[in-house]
Amino acid sequence: MPKRKIGVLVMSYGTPESMDGIEAYYTHIRRGSPPSEEQLQALTDRYEKIAIGVFPLRENTNRQVEQLELTLNKEHPEYEFKCYQGLKHAAPFIEDGVKQMAEDGIREAVGIVLAPHYSIMSVGGYTKRAEEAAAAHGVSIKCVKSYHLHPKLIEALTVRVKDGLKRFDVPQEQVRVIFSAHSLPEKILEMNDPYPDQLLASSKAVADKAGVQNWQFAWQSAGQTAMPWLGPDILDVLGTIRREEDVKHVLLCPIGFVSDHLEVLYDIDIEGQQLAKELGIHLERTASLNTDPLYMETLSDATAERLGQD
């Protein structure tokens, strides 16, 4: 008997494939409005500072999708899984991924986002586009909402926190562990959006498992818009804890990010480190999940579980 063929739409924010694609990418983020020369130059400068001869961001996501397909077929041999990328702001767009599934003859699919925590403004937006595209192409799709407390995800993050703490030459209790995630507009609070609570729940689960008591949460990478965004921002937090609490050792765990994004490689590793040096803080960052087997198994488990649900 042939195996059930399942398409898996792996969704993420997207990133340009090369420096040449930055303007088109930024224009799409701005809903078709091209950025000014100053805005484009500012973003290009950030990418140039993390490129170091290569442009690694898209390759990180590509590897995650490849490894997830291998993990799914290894862990769940009763199905035949094929993974497709669907990006929010770059090709292949979410709609492209669904279209390709349909062209490949797939009629049953699961959608999952490379972001453990649900917000109507992030994961909710991806899944809405996926469901609309699937309906148009005759594909039945079920989407995973969140997996922020999956035991394997918590274990993978715990290992990283423990490893990070070993990089300090002071007792663990003198190191402030700060968990961070991408800020969103404050208006999500009026919607009873679960995003902040899910992030705090993940942070607490990791801190408890790692035996960390000296921790807090902060936001990062807020958009430059007229509307207020969730805070406090990590850069402000670093200044506050140095001045008011004399904290000199910080381990930053960007718990809301699952690979080496611009928000990790630039916002933390360059901008955050520069500020930390000015403040006299020894700042370390936990390693990104990328293709960690525990993270791949988290995605695989969540996908298979959703497939079995009505």
From TrEMBL:
<keyword id="KW-0408">Iron</keyword>
<feature type="binding site">
    <location>
        <position position="30"/>
    </location>
    <ligand>
        <name>Fe-coproporphyrin III</name>
    </ligand>
</feature>
<comment type="function">
    <text>Involved in coproporphyrin-dependent heme b biosynthesis. Catalyzes the insertion of ferrous iron into coproporphyrin III to form Fe-coproporphyrin III.</text>
</comment>
<dbReference type="InterPro" id="IPR019772">
    <property type="entry name" value="Ferrochelatase_AS"/>
</dbReference>
<dbReference type="GO" id="GO:0006783">
    <property type="term" value="P:heme biosynthetic process"/>
</dbReference>
<dbReference type="GO" id="GO:0046872">
    <property type="term" value="F:metal ion binding"/>
</dbReference>
<dbReference type="InterPro" id="IPR033644">
    <property type="entry name" value="Ferrochelatase_C"/>
</dbReference>
<keyword id="KW-0350">Heme biosynthesis</keyword>
<keyword id="KW-0627">Porphyrin biosynthesis</keyword>
<feature type="binding site">
    <location>
        <position position="182"/>
    </location>
    <ligand>
        <name>Fe(2+)</name>
    </ligand>
</feature>
<dbReference type="GO" id="GO:0004325">
    <property type="term" value="F:ferrochelatase activity"/>
</dbReference>
<dbReference type="GO" id="GO:0005737">
    <property type="term" value="C:cytoplasm"/>
</dbReference>
<feature type="binding site">
    <location>
        <position position="263"/>
    </location>
    <ligand>
        <name>Fe(2+)</name>
    </ligand>
</feature>
<keyword id="KW-0456">Lyase</keyword>
<comment type="pathway">
    <text>Porphyrin-containing compound metabolism; protoheme biosynthesis.</text>
</comment>
<keyword id="KW-0479">Metal-binding</keyword>
<dbReference type="InterPro" id="IPR001015">
    <property type="entry name" value="Ferrochelatase"/>
</dbReference>
<feature type="binding site" description="axial binding residue">
    <location>
        <position position="13"/>
    </location>
    <ligand>
        <name>Fe-coproporphyrin III</name>
    </ligand>
</feature>
<feature type="binding site">
    <location>
        <position position="126"/>
    </location>
    <ligand>
        <name>Fe-coproporphyrin III</name>
    </ligand>
</feature>
<feature type="binding site">
    <location>
        <begin position="46"/>
        <end position="47"/>
    </location>
    <ligand>
        <name>Fe-coproporphyrin III</name>
    </ligand>
</feature>
<dbReference type="Pfam" id="PF00762">
    <property type="entry name" value="Ferrochelatase"/>
</dbReference>
<protein>
    <recommendedName>
        <fullName>Coproporphyrin III ferrochelatase</fullName>
        <ecNumber>4.99.1.9</ecNumber>
    </recommendedName>
</protein>
<keyword id="KW-0963">Cytoplasm</keyword>
<comment type="similarity">
    <text>Belongs to the ferrochelatase family.</text>
</comment>
